[in-house]
Amino acid sequence: MTRDNLLFGIIGILLGFIGGFLLAGNITQREAAMRANPQSAQSGPLPANHPPIAGGDQANGEGMLASVQTAMKQARENPNDFEAQLTAAKLEYQIGRYDQAIEYLLAANKLKPDDADVLSMLGEANMDAKHWDAAVKWYKAALLKRPSDLASMDGYCFVLLQNGDAKAAEEAINKLAKADPTNQDLPQFHEKLSQLKSGKTQ
Known about the structure:
It is built from ten helices and no strands.
């Protein structure tokens, strides 16, 4: 019995050494990976629309910021340059500065009021900034220029629901369902519309 206890004790000590060795190796590997790729350790997964950062390279992130600053300078120095305004807007949007992107898009819209892409982008930027009234206005204008634009139709449905306009939302959802029956957002749009209607009748 004593021999068995001694055997179990020796096995336990050996397992402890092995486990400690593996744990230390794992920590060392993780630290090495974090040193090699500090971006992944600090910020976690990037949002879907974030510009790619190759290997988590900090210099590349700084390069993106420099690109934004250069584009802003170009846009401000050339207020009548449509492309300069659009480039600045896109870069601001990519880094999540929606209000700044909207400023440049408004400048682009003044230069080309009938450009459906700019109208749609104004809808999207205002939607992401949660400016629901403005987003409704711009998506509506975009759809007047390009009624079959599925992305604008989808965004329009979303912002109408967020704005609590059940009647307009239902009409927009029906149009989207007719134009794009397999749209993956339709189930949640119908659910939100149902909630909106039931809330109004209570």
